[in-house]
Amino acid sequence: MACDVMTERSVFAENPKHRRKTVAHTISAIGSLIRSQPKRIARGEVDIVDLGRLAGLRLTLEESIGEMARGLHADGYSWAEIARVLNVTKQEAHRRYGTKKET
């Protein structure tokens, strides 16, 4: 089993297409889980603690978006390109996600 993990890690590290596919799949799966919450609520399967956990994901998600935006900018994407996919203005993307030394 350990050999399989090492093989997968090296494929992941050496193949950017595999890495992008894995990230896209993970993001899609998380979206599906979040979209399923209204059904769980309707069936009475959630409580107030679950609301807090879901709200906690908001901060984690915002931090991840910021890291990804800064990384893409460092890789050569413009703030205008990043802003377009985030559906915000270029100025807003830079304000939210730009590093302090850039501003």
What can you see in these coordinates?
With about 100 residues, the protein is mainly alpha-helical. It folds into 2 domains: about 1-35; about 45-103. Helix content is about 80%, strand content about 0%. The protein is extended, with a radius of gyration of 18 Å. The termini are far apart.
Q: Please mark out the parts with pLDDT under 50 across 5 or more consecutive residues, or reply none.
A: 1-12
Number of strands: 0
Morphology call: extended
Helix percent reads over 70%
One letter per element, helices H and strands E, the order comes to HHHHHH
The main pleated sheet reads as: none
Number of domains: 2
Percent strand equals: under 5%
Helix and strand content put the structural class at mainly alpha
Q: What is the average of the pLDDT values?
A: 81
Please describe the structure with a list of short key phrases separated by commas or semicolons:
2 domains; extended; 103 residues
In short:
The protein is built from 6 helices and no strands. With 103 residues, the protein is an all-alpha fold.
Helix and strand arrangement:
Elements: H1 2-14, H2 16-35, H3 37-42, H4 48-74, H5 79-86, H6 90-97
Helix pairs in contact: 1-2, 5-6
